[in-house]
Design goal:
Elements: H1 2-18, E1 22-24, E2 40-46, H2 54-57, H3 65-78, H4 81-95, E3 99-111, E4 126-130, H5 131-141, E5 146-163, E6 166-181, E7 185-193, E8 198-200, E9 205-207, E10 210-218, E11 221-229, H6 235-249, E12 256-261, H7 270-277, E13 281-282, E14 313-318, E15 324-331, E16 350-357
Parallel strand pairs: 2-3, 11-12
Antiparallel strand pairs: 1-15, 2-16, 3-4, 3-6, 5-6, 7-10, 8-9, 10-11, 12-14, 13-14, 15-16
Helix pairs in contact: 4-5, 6-7
């Protein structure tokens, strides 16, 4: 009788431990032995450059460009990334993910006076803000040791900005970055821009997007970790980039963790459905606390109540070959996450997945 009672209590305890988790089973040929591995935690976070680029990208008169650049620049400064980075670092400290995919990691540079007109002979090099260094410093201040495992340079744009003294040049370089915890073994980094890209003919710009990937080894198991940020403004380009990424990863035999800002809404977005059809599992639990919506707060980040109404930041897996239990969380989207200034940490929420192998 005592033995039976112990068995019942053990069964109840197991149910309690896994309650609130979602089990996902994915079968592949000769799966890696990951059933005894420690829990794996991953994260994706679009940290937000600090301003919408849409007013600039849609100008109809080139004479309006310097004024629109000035508005965007002032918005970026007002968004106070150093303070927001501190809040983001605290969210990272809460879960201490093994690997993190970051989007909109920006490098803002200035040249005064500018020489953009007529032939822009010298590119701006004076650093105004280096988002990557600012965030790394914020992580170090929290006692965390993360390293850059891989990064992809997307756009590198310089334009004239109207100032009280004339024209300066403002240069924005955008990166997607993979950070790894210091105890994670990293190898085989690579990064590539997609061949499909949005072209803004009025400005003579090509808006490049791409992905970065690494092999990340945790507890002796190696995963292919991929981070991307797909086109936001044109669905045709976004879907084409989605297909490019699917094709690139089609022959990958390692367990894949695919994260990023996909700019396609779950559950009905065309790109989202393409990814699922390619054999990926979305790790978000629909019964998790909260809706999982990740976008988007107001452009100035000062809205009092969250405006996140869509889920476009995702974490997918493929080739795992074992049943897994998953706990998912959003970060940076609660009223208590707002800075004392009233700013949200980003216009996106971050997404964390804690994966336990069964």
């Amino acid at each position: 009788m005592l033995t039976k009672l112990k068995s019942v209590l053990l069964f109840i305890l197991m149910l309690f431990v896994v309650s609130g988790c979602e089990r996902i089973t994915d079968t592949v040929v000769q799966p890696p032995d990951i059933s005894d591995s420690q829990p794996l935690t991953v994260m994706t976070y679009n940290v937000y450059v600090g301003s919408s680029a849409e007013p600039l990208l849609t100008v109809e008169n080139l004479l309006a460009v310097p004024g629109e650049v000035a508005k965007m620049y002032n918005n970026v400064i007002a968004s106070d990334f150093p303070s927001r980075a501190t809040a983001i670092a605290k969210s990272i400290k809460t879960y201490q993910p093994h690997v993190i995919g970051l989007q909109e990691i920006s490098l803002v540079r200035r040249q005064s006076p500018g020489d953009f007109i007529p032939d822009n002979p010298t590119l701006a090099e004076e650093v105004v803000m280096d988002y990557l260094q600012i965030l790394i410093d914020a992580l170090h201040s929290e006692g965390l040791n993360y390293e850059v495992a891989a990064q992809i340079e997307n756009i590198d744009i310089e334009m004239p900005m109207l100032t009280e003294k004339g024209l300066d040049d403002i240069r924005l370089t955008d990166y997607d970055v993979i950070l790894s915890r210091s105890d994670v073994e990293i190898s085989n980094p690579m990064s590539t821009n997609y061949t499909n890209a949005l072209t803004i003919e009025m400005l003579g710009l090509v808006i490049h997007r791409g992905y970065a990937a690494v092999d990340a080894t945790v507890s002796g198991v190696t995963y292919r970790f991929v981070n991307t940020h797909l086109e936001a403004y044109t669905e045709v380009i976004r879907v084409a980039q989605t297909q490019e990424l699917i094709d690139i990863l089609a022959d990958e035999t390692l367990p894949i963790i695919l994260v990023g800002d996909f700019n396609t809404r779950a559950p009905n977005g065309t790109g989202y459905q393409k990814i699922l059809a390619a054999g990926y599992h979305d790790l978000w639990q629909m019964d998790s606390e909260g809706s999982g919506n990740t976008c988007c707060q107001d452009g100035d980040l000062l809205n009092e109540i969250t405006d996140n109404t869509g889920r476009i930041d995702h974490i997918y897996v493929r080739n795992f070959g074992h049943s897994i239990s998953v706990k998912t969380h959003t970060v940076g989207d609660k009223s208590t996450d707002r800075l004392n200034s009233g700013l949200w940490p980003s216009d996106h929420a971050g997404v964390v997945a804690e994966i336990t192998f069964e």
